[in-house]
Structure formats: C-alpha cells, structure tokens
Amino acid sequence: MSKGSSSLGKALKGVTDFAAGIAVFGVLLVVLLQVSSRMAGFPVSWTEEATRYLFVWMIFLGLAAGFRTVETARVIVLIAMMPAFIRRLSVPIYVISSVIFFGLMGWTGYHLVQQQLMMNETAATLAVPMWLIGTIMPLSSILAVLAIIESLRTRRDLIELPEPLQGEPEFTLAESAMPKPEKQP
What we know:
single chain, 185 residues, mainly alpha, 9 helices
C-alpha cells in the first residue's frame, strides 16, 4: 500500500478541510459578533441559530475528515481480546460497520432533506431554507464512505490490529494498536 496521497485523497482533504475550516471561521465570527453586540446592548437575534447550524456542519465535515485520516474512535480493546481468527477480521468489521452506518445516515439525511423541501421549512430567525442545513447529512455520509475507501488504500496499517508478540498479554495488544503521532519533517 502506498503512503502517498491519491487524487481522491487530495480532493477529500480539500473538500472536508476547506469546508470545515469555513464553518469554524464562521462560528468564530458569529460568536464574536454575538458577544460584542450583547456587550454593546444591541444583541443580534440570529447569531445563536447561525452558530448552531455552522457547528452542525463543522461536526459532520469533521466526521468525514476523521475517517480519511483514521482518527476516529474505535473499540479495539474488545477486538484485541478476541481469538486470532476474529482479529484478522478487524478490517472487514471496521469497513462494513462504518459503511452500513454511513449508508443509514445518508439515507436518513436524504429523506430529511426531502421532507424539508416538501414542507418548505425555513430556520426561525435566519430565514434560510432548512434543506440547506440538512444537506450536510447525506453529503458527509458520501464523503465519509469515500474517506474509508481512501484510508484503506493509504492507511490500512492504522486500521489493522497488529498480531500479539509471543508471550505478550492480549490486553496490551489494544495499546499497541494505537496510532503513534507522526513526526513532522
């Protein structure tokens, strides 16, 4: 497996990191506006709702970015305690369960957006169509599945559990499977 980034990896990095960065910057600006307007005695009514929706976008985009870099929460302790033949299935278990989860999330998000479009729902104070907010669910599920594919191609070693050394207790296997921080050049 190559460690270099593919064109899919570069595109995913650009989309997820750039869009999440815009959401973070938006949250920062809106919160600063909220605080300063309240201190000036003229609170802006839409800032709380805008912060909430930007935060939702930031979280969903961060979820996709986390799967791209294999920095998501995994329950490796339970798998490490299993027999060797089940430990060898750690990658398929990871991939299948993640793809099923994101498939369900995308399906649910798609139907949520359809409902928001049908009902012509808008945000209370922003007067923004709610389907714009809800679109992040199916979008991030697609990005996350693509990120899983990319991480399988470039970071499979971080997904796999290492085989225990002779005489090493099984519970230390989970500790050894934790990714080590990469050294910056």
